[in-house]
Automatic annotation (TrEMBL), chain A:
InterPro entries: PDHB_mito-type, THDP-binding, Transketo_C/PFOR_II, Transketolase-like_Pyr-bd, Transketolase_C
Keywords in alphabetical order: Carbohydrate metabolism, Glucose metabolism, Oxidoreductase, Pyruvate, Thiamine pyrophosphate
Documented EC number(s): 1.2.4.1
General function of this protein: The pyruvate dehydrogenase complex catalyzes the overall conversion of pyruvate to acetyl-CoA and CO2. The pyruvate dehydrogenase complex catalyzes the overall conversion of pyruvate to acetyl-CoA and CO(2), and thereby links the glycolytic pathway to the tricarboxylic cycle.
Signal sequence segment: none
Subunit structure, interactors included: Heterotetramer of two PDHA1 and two PDHB subunits. The heterotetramer interacts with DLAT, and is part of the multimeric pyruvate dehydrogenase complex that contains multiple copies of pyruvate dehydrogenase (E1), dihydrolipoamide acetyltransferase (DLAT, E2) and lipoamide dehydrogenase (DLD, E3). These subunits are bound to an inner core composed of about 48 DLAT and 12 PDHX molecules. Interacts with DLAT.
Matches recorded under NCBIfam families: PRK11892.1
This protein's name: Pyruvate dehydrogenase E1 component subunit beta
SMART domains noted in UniProt: Transket_pyr (SM00861)
UniProtKB/TrEMBL annotation, chain B:
Protein name per Swiss-Prot or TrEMBL: Pyruvate dehydrogenase E1 component subunit alpha
Pfam families hit by this protein: E1_dh
Keyword Protein biosynthesis: no
GO molecular function: metal ion binding; pyruvate dehydrogenase (acetyl-transferring) activity
Domain Dehydrogenase E1 component: 70-364
GO biological process: glucose metabolic process; pyruvate decarboxylation to acetyl-CoA
Principal location listed in the UniProt entry: mitochondrion
Keywords assigned by UniProt, alphabetized: Carbohydrate metabolism, Glucose metabolism, Magnesium, Metal-binding, Mitochondrion, Oxidoreductase, Phosphoprotein, Pyruvate, Thiamine pyrophosphate, Transit peptide
Catalytic activity field: N(6)-[(R)-lipoyl]-L-lysyl-[protein] + pyruvate + H(+) = N(6)-[(R)-S(8)-acetyldihydrolipoyl]-L-lysyl-[protein] + CO2
GO cellular component: mitochondrial matrix
Subcellular location: Mitochondrion matrix
InterPro entries for this protein: DH_E1 (IPR001017), PDH_E1_Alpha_Subunit (IPR050642), Pyrv_DH_E1_asu_subgrp-y (IPR017597), THDP-binding (IPR029061)
Function description: The pyruvate dehydrogenase complex catalyzes the overall conversion of pyruvate to acetyl-CoA and CO(2), and thereby links the glycolytic pathway to the tricarboxylic cycle.
Length: 342, 393
């Protein structure tokens, strides 16, 4: 089925702060790769590997991509495999789904997530539900689309944070026989990450449906996805100086969610905070808390599970307001200390 | 006798010239029936085309009987569905196709089985012409495990090889069809996609988006508007600023076709298919047709049109009667032969209905299956956290 890449836009184009990260020491063969380049590599490798794969979307070909994610691909693969579309999301999303039904593996790119709303019907009703309804014979503003798409059976939803995440998850999404929504965070494109030698290989994929423990800790579990994972790690670094050790989990996949990894962690640390960029109501954190409550980890909680989320308002325009509408590192630190009662 | 007729038919077909010139072959002394005849068909109105399909069509006895059998089977199948619905054995949505048979049969006669087809929700007829048995169609309508989608799709979601349903969202199937055509072009397999929609859907924005991309990229797509004059309860005059649906493709050439005449539809489809396959890009056909039933089973169909109008179409333009009259008047078939066929068809439909009523429903274990393709088995949350259901793909 179609692999749908959607660019998550959380406001104006300007990248406010590039977060500096402390990198772990690794082998000399590791190199630094930005998220943008990792996505580019993933598509390049998959286009080369499988001739059924092609990319369509606005400005993906001759413009090299609105955010330069598809840079160089048109030059290499030509008009047949890299297709510039008119500004008609519903139309070309439907065309992507139709091409997938007929045996190709399209990557359908929406320039921003808001534009994908025009095509939501094709994604939900045509892509997600068809396999179920055909019983396997052949088979719908700026907001957090993790909750939107994560709500829907028949879709897989992934949310990469690092360059390795981006590359490995996108490759898995392209190879998957089912529709996959890839939530990319535009603010992450220019951020460089270490890429291990293993991740540089053309066969490197990250399994969909498995979370990763980015940092081990014993006092509290922080579960997050996408850009907020970086915030959690920064908060953890600050808290470590005060003797508080946070375990940071990178969800990587929103649906199907890896609740087992979260449960195991909570059973170890006894405290849970979810951190996301989206709004609180019916969000990713809400789902995690509900599941933890319903499962075996509940009995291990020493304090109520807490969600750290975006502010429950439409995304504001002014830069200073925008900066304050999503969780900051200090919000995470504050919530950890409240939960641990320190 | 049967063998003799077959030999005669193949001999004459071999000597037939391609563009349907008037060849009326007189009956041989030991043959009972005329092997083939030529008929004048209504000329198509053209948009951005210098030439259209021919004004005559040759019909062989063999093809004629085949088209008759297909149309009559579809007719009886839909009437049986009506009956089963009224008995509450079929529930939910049910949109019947009776009156429009010539469209589905004519289109299928004009394309190859390896070509692709997609339509909207009035899809039972196309499911049949694309190769699914009456038994599997009726059993899908009654929601049984012997149905073509194992009982999980229902009326609007039946599929077959190179047939993509069956789509419930008005107009959404048109970009899908353009996408299938893109895949045909991409794979260079010389196949085309027939993409159908109704007069009601014809005003949808996504259809114009599809027209634009199909023309831009020269996709091998035949867009077909089945104009049955009413979008649910709204007549075409009340819905469209322009009811010349064959012209609505603007830069895409179009034909307006008599959708009640199976030969007219066939010739137009052949013309359109040749056009697409030659790499010229998409083409649009408007089939003027009529549905006897209301929009769906919950619509009596007489609040927005008169019974007289329905009756007039039935008596003057019924596609099955038209074909039957042609066959009999040229001695290509006998009244008795047709009657026999009718009896056979009734029996087939009756048996299919028996199966559809007696076959068991899909087992509860199937509830969560087929969410994904090619995936290992997984668990699905039930209505409460303690209920975990199994799902296999």
């Amino acid at each position: 089925m179609a692999s749908l890449r959607c660019f998550l836009r959380s406001g104006r184009n300007a990248v406010s702060v590039i977060l500096r990260r402390e990198f772990h020491k690794t082998s000399p063969a590791a190199l630094q790769v930005t998220v943008r380049d990792a996505l580019n590599q993933a598509m390049d490798e998959e286009l080369e590997r499988d001739e059924r794969v092609f990319l369509l979307g606005e400005e993906v070909a001759q413009y090299d991509g609105a955010y330069k994610v598809s840079r160089g691909l048109w030059k290499k693969y030509g008009d047949k495999r890299i297709i510039d579309t008119p500004i008609t999301e519903m139309g070309f999303a439907g065309i992507a789904v139709g091409a997938a039904m007929a045996g190709l593996r399209p990557i359908c790119e929406f320039m921003t997530f808001n534009f994908s709303m025009q095509a939501i019907d094709q994604v939900i009703n045509s892509a997600a539900k068809t396999y179920y309804m055909s019983a396997g014979v052949a088979a719908q503003h700026s907001q957090c689309f993790a909750a939107w798409y994560g709500h829907c059976p028949g879709l897989k939803v992934i949310s990469p944070w690092s360059a390795e995440d981006a590359k490995g998850l996108l490759k898995s999404a392209i190879r998957d026989d089912n529709p996959v929504v890839v939530l990319e965070n535009e603010l992450m494109y220019g951020v460089p990450f270490e890429m291990s030698e293993e991740a540089q290989s053309k066969d490197f994929t990250i399994p969909i449906g498995k979370a990763k423990v980015e940092r081990q800790g014993s006092h509290i579990t922080l579960v997050s996805h996408s850009r907020m994972v970086g915030h959690c790690l920064d908060a953890a670094a600050v808290l470590a100086k005060e003797g508080i050790e946070c375990e940071v989990i990178n969800l990587r996949t929103i649906r199907p969610m890896d609740i087992d990894t979260i449960e195991a962690s909570v059973m170890k640390t006894n405290h849970l905070i979810t951190v996301e960029g989206g709004w609180p109501q019916f969000g990713v954190g809400a789902e995690i808390c509900a599941r933890i409550m319903e499962g075996q980890a509940f009995n291990y909680l020493d304090a109520p599970a807490i969600r750290v989320t975006g502010v429950d308002i439409p995304m504001p325009y002014a830069k200073i307001l925008e900066d304050h509408s999503t969780p900051q590192i200090k919000d995470i630190i504050f919530s950890v200390k409240k939960t641990l009662n320190v | 006798m049967q063998n003799m007729l077959t030999i005669l038919t193949s001999v004459f077909r071999g000597s037939l010239s391609k563009n349907g010139s008037k060849v009326v072959v007189s009956a041989r002394t030991y043959a009972d029936f005329t092997p083939q005849a030529s008929f004048d068909i209504k000329k198509c109105e053209l948009h951005r085309l210098e030439q259209g399909p021919p004004g005559e069509a040759v019909l062989t006895r063999e093809d004629g009987l085949r088209y008759y059998r297909a149309m009559q089977t579809m007719r009886r199948m839909e009437l049986k569905a009506d009956q089963l619905y009224k008995q509450k054995i079929i529930r939910g949505f049910c949109h019947l196709y009776d009156g429009q048979e010539a469209c589905a049969v004519g289109i299928e006669a004009g394309v190859n089985p390896t070509d692709h087809l997609i339509t909207a929700y009035r899809a039972h007829g196309y499911t049949y012409t694309r190769g699914i048995s009456v038994k599997e169609i009726l059993a899908e309508l009654t929601g049984r495990k012997g149905g073509v989608a194992k009982g999980k799709g229902g009326s609007m979601h039946m599929y077959a090889k190179h047939f993509y349903g069956g789509n419930g969202i008005v107009g959404a199937q048109v970009p899908l069809g353009a996408g299938v055509a893109l895949a045909c072009q991409y794979q260079g397999n010389n196949q085309i996609c027939v993409t159908l929609y109704g007069d009601g859907a014809a005003n949808q924005g996504q259809i114009f988006e599809s027209f634009n991309m199909a023309a831009l990229w020269k996709l091998p797509c035949i867009f077909i508007c089945e104009n049955n004059k009413y979008g649910m309860g709204t007549s075409v005059e009340r819905a469209s600023a322009s009811t010349d649906y064959y012209k609505r493709g603007d830069f895409i050439p179009g034909l307006r076709v008599d959708g009640m005449d199976v030969l007219c539809v066939r010739e137009a489809t052949k013309f359109a298919a040749d056009y697409c396959r030659s790499g010229k890009g998409p083409i649009l056909m408007e089939l003027q047709t009529y549905r006897y039933h209301g929009h769906s089973m919950s619509d009596p169909g007489v609040s927005y049109r008169t019974r007289e109008e329905i009756q007039e179409v039935r008596s003057k333009s019924d596609p099955i009667s038209m074909l039957k009259d042609r066959m009999i008047s040229t001695n290509m078939a006998s009244v008795e032969e047709i009657k026999e066929m009718d009896v056979e068809i009734r029996k087939e439909v009756e048996e299919a209905a028996q199966f559809a009523t007696s076959d068991p429903e899909p087992p509860l274990e199937d509830l969560c299956n087929h969410i994904f393709y090619n995936e290992p088995p997984m668990e699905v949350r039930g209505t409460n956290p303690w209920t975990k259901l199994k799902s296999i793909s």
